[in-house]
Amino acid sequence: HNGDDRAAQIPRYVRVNTLIWTSDHAMDAFISNGYNLMDPFTSSRGFAKDEHIPNLLLFSPQTTFHDDPVYKSGKIILQDKASCFPAVVLSPPSREDVYVIDATAAPGNKTSHLSAIMGNKGKLFAFERDRKRFKTLQMMLSKAGCQNVEALNLDFLTVDPQDAAYRKVTHILLDPSCSGSGIVNRLDHLLETEEESKSEKDERLTKLAAFQLVMIKHAMKFPAVKRIVYSTCSVHAMENEHVVRDALKSEEAESSGFKLESLENVLPQWKRRGLPDEMDNPGDAASLIRCSPGGDATNGFFVSCFVRRDRNTTNDQ
Ligand code: SAM
């Protein structure tokens, strides 16, 4: 498989931004513009509704929308299907008293998705430590019509969980920097360079994994948090199952009472799950989501969800 082969298996995904549009209006508009409800792999003007993610449409892989007014106006977001999973799994309720953190937000695809799921209600704090990427985030949020978001150019690890501002935060999305090894590049550039030796690669992944674990443990310290989604666009167990396994064993998980969310609340319809052999308790892998690059018509991706024990973990709480 080279990048091009796999890219050809991935449709162009279009998430309808329900903050300013509806799927019904979007579908009518696409049909008026010459698209048809047909298999996007057999017809270049075909499009379809995704079977797992609400408000997500699939077009033929060659379709481009970058110059389309519906893209420029923020009515659609170009976002791979796999990267829609985290916000859907976190699924914060749409209510004024709901407080959420997106800990690593830029460029903001998942932030605007969360904002849409929240129906622009409540409060969504979006942290981004990189100055330049923060600017991109701000632009993206304003274009997408997100009004319940407060974007802050901060390192999440410097945010004090005891700060009164975050006392009511119940949901945290954590999509930190990773190796990006799951990304199927349409230009066939390999992200993992072939010159890198095995030990160099191991060292790089070890560092990333240590950082990812620290981020999860920090999220677990927020006093009211009851649901944390951790995701990566990596295919490596070191950044995925191993990080989750170590987070579950951490003092923070122990003292705050975090465990893995059960399968029925983590997109049970999705068939590809975590790798059992990479977990201490192989049964835990069922509640983890994996996406195989190309193989699932998505990029490579990983999603996990921690919930606080002894609390009502249903989404309407
Ligand atoms: N969730 C984003 C989206 O869907 O558009 C993508 C996030 S990207 C994988 C990770 C981001 O986290 C990068 O922009 C990086 O600069 C930022 N980041 C890394 N460490 C951070 C930290 N400690 N605090 C805040 N942001 C951080």
UniProtKB/TrEMBL annotation:
Active site: C233
Coiled coil: none
Catalytic activity from the UniProt record: a cytidine in 25S rRNA + S-adenosyl-L-methionine = a 5-methylcytidine in 25S rRNA + S-adenosyl-L-homocysteine + H(+)
Domain SAM-dependent MTase RsmB/NOP-type: start-end pairs: 2-309
GO CC aspect terms: nucleolus
Organism domain of life: Eukaryota
Keyword Cell inner membrane recorded: no
Gene Ontology annotations of biological process type: rRNA base methylation
Transmembrane segments: none
Molecular function via GO: RNA binding; RNA methyltransferase activity
UniProt binding sites for S-adenosyl-L-methionine: E128, D155, D175
Keywords: Methyltransferase, RNA-binding, S-adenosyl-L-methionine, Transferase
Family: Belongs to the class I-like SAM-binding methyltransferase superfamily. RsmB/NOP family.
Protein name per UniProt: S-adenosyl-L-methionine-dependent methyltransferase
Residues shown, of full length: 125 to 441 of 464
